[in-house]
Amino acid sequence: MRFDDVQSEVTFLALYHLLDFGSGYNHVLQQRNLRDAHETIQFGCIGMRLGTDRMDHHWMKAFSNYSVHNFFGIDCMDEHELSPGISISKPGILHPLTRSLRAVVNATGAALEALSQRSLGQNIEEHLEGQCADGRTPSAAALITHLAQQFSGFEDVESYEGVQVTFMRKAQALVLDLHARFASRDPRFAFSDIHALTGDSGSLLPAILRTMGILTYSPELGAAVDAATAGVELPAGPHELALRAAAVTAVDTLARASAAAGHLVSASQLSCFLLAQAESGGPLCGKVVRHLTRTGVAY
Length: 299
Description:
Elements (H helix, E strand, L loop, with lengths): L5 H13 L7 H8 L3 H15 L5 H5 L3 H8 L4 E7 L2 E6 L3 H20 L5 H12 L8 H11 L6 E4 L2 E4 L2 H14 L21 H8 L7 H8 L11 H23 L6 H10 L23
Antiparallel strand pairs: 1-2, 3-4
């Protein structure tokens, strides 16, 4: 795709990562649309880019359930037969996903309007320009914190046994993409601390690490995760948070061990490599079982 300027492309990337969630519905989406959640979001965001040049706060505030259906191909209503030849539409299993996608877009539009900013791209550019004032080097961590503070859809902090656990999955992924895309030609995106970012904390990485024998689940947790093959959800809570935290910790430990052996690789780089192993054509494609958690908008 072609973009008129950097701000337009940043807006597109930011919206894509903001909406990169819904993996708990993979089972249903693959049955109905032959796409998992990640592919569904990619498909929808490309459609949004081709269908509108605005993607501004006015457009985001007006985003509706119909918009979700139109761009992402997600039908939130299911038909129920009342009697032969007579049926009624009721909210279906994908209705909560539709509601969440709409709500995240609406809330982001409202936040931008309150800030008197047109788009996510403008917000990010202005923040980075402030970071770079007086010749300072831009910080990935500062941008991630900024995104989480300004937009609830990027906030990703949970409580585990009274301890606050910070993941910031989507914001980190966006910052990594911005650095990869622009750092070589735009100093605003040349983050000095880019190698300090963590591994991905979605549902795929723990599944990969388990398949590789790096993570071991208790029998109880293993059975709960394996039930995902039948579309059974792992409820949000301690088990789900432990999976996310364990994957991040494992990748960080592997990266540090590699560095000690003379092989410099960051946790985020290692995470990207591992995730690619389960993509189409990768050696683990179709061989990993991801847990399904449908609440929240983190992944």
